[in-house]
Amino acid sequence: MKVRKNEVLESLIRLGKQIYNQLSLEDFPYVExxxxxxxNIRYDKELRQYVLGDKYIRRTARNIxxxxxxxxxxxxxxxxxxxxxxxKTSTLRDIYYMSQAYEVDFSDQAxxxxxxxxxxxxxxxxxxxxNVFPEERxxxxxxxxxxxxxxxxxxxxxxxxxHPDGVMIGPALTxxxxxxxxxxxxxxxxxxxxxxxxxxxxxxxxxxxILIHTAGQAPRATRHLIHRLNEELNLPVYIFCxxxxxxxxxAQVIISGSANAAHxxxxxxxxxxxxxxxxxxIIRFKLPSEKLSELDLKRLKELEKDPRYxxxxxxxEIRVFNKIQKKAEQEAFSRYGLTKIVDDYLPRRLEEMKSx
Amino acid sequence: MSREVFYEISPADFFxxxxxxxxxxxxxxxVYSAVRELIENSLDASEVYGxxxxxxxxxxxxxxxxxxxxxxxxxxxxxxxxxxxARYIPSAFGQVFYGSKYKLRQSRGTFGLGGTMAILYGxxxxxxxxxxxxxxxxxxxxxxxxxxxxxxxxxxxxxxxxYKNEDSWHGTIIEVKIExxxxxxxxxxxxxxxxxxxxxxxxxxTFVDPKGRLYRFERITEEMPKPPTxxxxxxxxxxxxxxxxxxxxxECRDMLSFxxxxxxxxxxxxxxxxxxxxxxxxxxxxxxxxxxxxxxxxKAMKEFKGFRAPSASCLSPLGENLLRVxxxxxxxxxxxxxxxxxxxxxxxxxxxxxxxxxxxxxxxRTGGIVLYRFANRIPLLYDEASDVSWKVVHTMINWKxxxxxxxxxxxxVFTHICSTKIPYRSVxxxxxxxxxxxxxxxxxxxxxxxxxxxxxxTRRKAIEMEKRRIDIFERxxxxxxxxxxxxxxxxxxxxxxxxxKKVVKYGTEEIQVxxx
Lengths: 356, 516
Known about the structure:
The structure holds two protein chains of two kinds. By secondary structure, chain A is an alpha/beta fold. Chain A has two domains: 2-133, Arc Repressor Mutant, subunit A, CATH 1.10.10.10; 138-353, Dna Topoisomerase Vi A Subunit, Chain: A, domain 2, CATH 3.40.1360.10. Chain A is 44% helix and 18% strand. Chain B folds into three domains: 11-217, Histidine kinase-like ATPase, C-terminal domain (Heat Shock Protein 90), CATH 3.30.565; 235-303, Helicase, Ruva Protein, domain 3; 312-456, Ribosomal Protein S5, domain 2 (2-Layer Sandwich). Helices cover 38% and strands 20% of the residues of chain B. Chain B has 14 helices and 14 strands. In chain B, the strands form two sheets. An eight-stranded mixed beta sheet of chain B has the order 5-4-3-6-2-1-7-8. In chain B, strands 9, 10, 11, 12, 13 and 14 form a six-stranded mixed beta sheet that branches. In chain B, a hairpin with a 5-residue loop joins β7 and β8 (214-217). In chain B, α2 packs antiparallel against α4. Chain B is globular. The A-B interface holds A 12-13, 15-17, 19-20, 23-24, 26, 28-29, 61-62, 64, 67-68, 70-71, 74-75, 77-78, 81, 102-104 and B 469, 472-473, 476-477, 479-481, 483-490, 494, 496, 498-499, 502-503.
């Protein structure tokens, strides 16, 4: 991890030198970054994620509309450089508040979040690499021992079964080294109630699983951690969400990434599997269901055309959704008893997944 | 049935009974009107003879504590005008309808009534005489104390002294005691002085109020408007009464010479054509005209199309330069456009309209367009919304057309109408009727001025935007230099001045002029 931090530092300093040299030559400084406009985002079938095309945009201090974001960008580069050097972390919101002391005029946090994404695409590292994290936290539980790499905790080890509610996925955990595990699979769960339910039923033991609570749409740190578990430990990843277009997309983003992060790698897990709850499960397990709303149907239409949904499993389930016009939550299994999902559904599904 | 008693009243008595119409309707208005009338007499006295006026006004309270409400004040007005010859002083100040203003030319008052009215009102309320000190610059200075015999309209001289005039002083000092309410009149008096200073930038006006506060409006130019010349009446504006009056004094023996001698801009040919049109023999003796003849003559005068328009030589407009100087001096706006219209005529009376639009600077912020109205160089302060200028400004001009927001509080509009007869709507002389000819001239003038304002505002906006643009570069370039120096771990911060020079589009001088 230290090597990576040094690379990030070097990239930042290179950016600073580039601008410094331009100014010294009495030129208006500029930076170039891949365009993140939708026209420059394409789906890479091999990588199985969205990637940016080869269009670049130039942001220059010569342009009256560019100079403010340009200043913000170089300020951000300077400030995160200091963060890394001091071994400190920050959040998206922190960055927004810190900016106020420097009068670089962010009009709101959305704007500073945007500039952070700009910096990511210029130096080709994710914001977590320059110590900026989002606020939302998800959790992990399972027999995995990690070793921290963050200052003051360097070398310190922790087993992720240490806390009955799971361990929060934060910067320290995302950057920790994996030491030891006997887990065979990773289970990602959309909802907190279901995550707790599965822990109570000791699913981690019964299935030799590491459980991850995504807390809705999985934060980047969590996606990066899932990526690493899959990549470094070769663990198969299964994702369980609600049976509706939104749940389906939570799984998809973990698998092939979001359009927003098309400039970043190592956030996707192309081999992860969407393991339910499927539209067809509503029929198969006779789950209590609700009617799909207007909004749900509209979202479904969008997904149908999305290249990430080209594979048959997705298209098939979209067809079922359209046919039955119903949706169901993960908790719907409780209708058949609290343990139904653990005793019946999960073993069957995991068995079935082996043949996919 | 009771018996009606008829009796004649003197003009003085008449005005005493109808003091409302002369602007003395309440104690506050009385102080204001008295000060105003006396100042106007002084200005006229100076201007007609071409002296840049030096006018000193002091109002002192009898009871120095100056409590609320009505009390007795002494108003003293000193000028450096022509002065009044000693033998005319009693009549000029102690008799209503006496004065030098009966002739047809532009002046502030018409009949010298206002000043006498102030004296009359003072006498009624305090039973004190007026003190007049005057000299025409000859060897003597005369001092009079006068009262008016109201019923007989005659001056009563209480005291007359004369002094040696060693310094060849000329001018008039008048001191009137009057009952009134100064605290309530104060805002209007100050506004009156300020507005007078706008249209008389060649005058020094000094005012000391009862609390001893000094207000001074300084002369900024020696240039004065060309004094008006007297003219004969134009036939189009003549009425039966005027004709009768002329007939009673004429020495002409036939109608042809009568027309040529007594009316404005009429030669032999026009006179012959007109008399033929009126069906009146050119040989007829003027004195032999019957009442019916005179009515017929007046009617024909209105209908005949062959008269030449009256000349404007009897008018004394301020001129674009003086109006501009006056506005600049009192309001110091960032932009002024002044337009003088060509002379025009309504009902046989010549008139000239002058207008101006000022923007920004010291224009008082009242939440909309501020309107300053002047007639024959008198500021009109009351009943604004009934005035023709108000109508033009608020209902006839589409300000949006000139990129102007009518709610913009930075705009002041000035209208000055000069004429041998200002068509006031009421005897109170505070607002002007919407005569179509006058309306048209005000509208035309304001449109021209508004176009210039519009061009100025467009340019100003462009400069402002340019300034904002440069401000942004000035704000951010040094920051970029600072952050990149830190990030690059360099010591010397690069100089961004050369880059700032490159972003200036327009000349920087222009921006400095605008700021200055």
